[in-house]
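Go through this one:
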Amino acid sequence: MNHQSLLVHPLPSRLRLRLAALIVALAVTAATAGAEAVRMVTIPAGSYVPLQRSEKDAPTVPVAAFLLDERPVTNAEFVAFVTAVPKWRRSQVSPLFADSSYLGQWVGDLDPGPGAPPDSPVVQVSWFAARAYAHWVGKRLPTTAEWELAASAGYTRPDGRNDDELNRDLYAWLARPVPAVLPAAGRGRPDYHGVRDLHGLVWEWVEDFNSAMVTGESRADSGLDRNLFCGAGAVGAKDTTDYAAFMRGALRSSLNAKNTTTSLGFRCARDLPPAAGR
């Protein structure tokens, strides 16, 4: 058979099916492995008021401008991660880095299944796994101060403490049970900066898990709780009437870095380039 006949001769049906499957697989990989393509929003410099602090601490923590993912990390993006880094698959992860519920909603190592749609936020991931993912995509987890600063924005103003619509949505979320299937990430109403789903979808890990509610000299105070390390519902944490802040504290105090829950996910952050941060 000459080359010309090869060009017009149809491929066997089995080979055509395999080729089609390969094309689909490559398309899925290109779409899901592009975690780097998640839009990042600039959060302007500001200050964070810790929920708890000692008398030795400054009343506020200065926060430099930084970049924050517009939305939480999704199941599809986490599939790409565990595909590339097998040690973080459900069947292979070390018990030192994740408890027995790690990715428990998924039906297999690389198959989230119908209970964890590709565009829904990944949950039941430990702090260790979230941090590893962030490093894999060239980012990091936000610090507590960064997360709280971003979450303090309202829908239409930089300070959301008196944003009635935001508070209504936040407290409605806190009153609802966690749904069996989470909604898609990134569909929530954007806040003043353009960030979505900081409130009303899932709780989120932060980087400094063992000092999330204390700062400065109080970190050396052995009488303070060291098990507080995730952020959510952080509007006006200095206000003792802020129910959401204390709900967050209650959740944090029950966790350690290898724990996973059905309502705890994460998003990534990144430093601004020096010139952009000025």
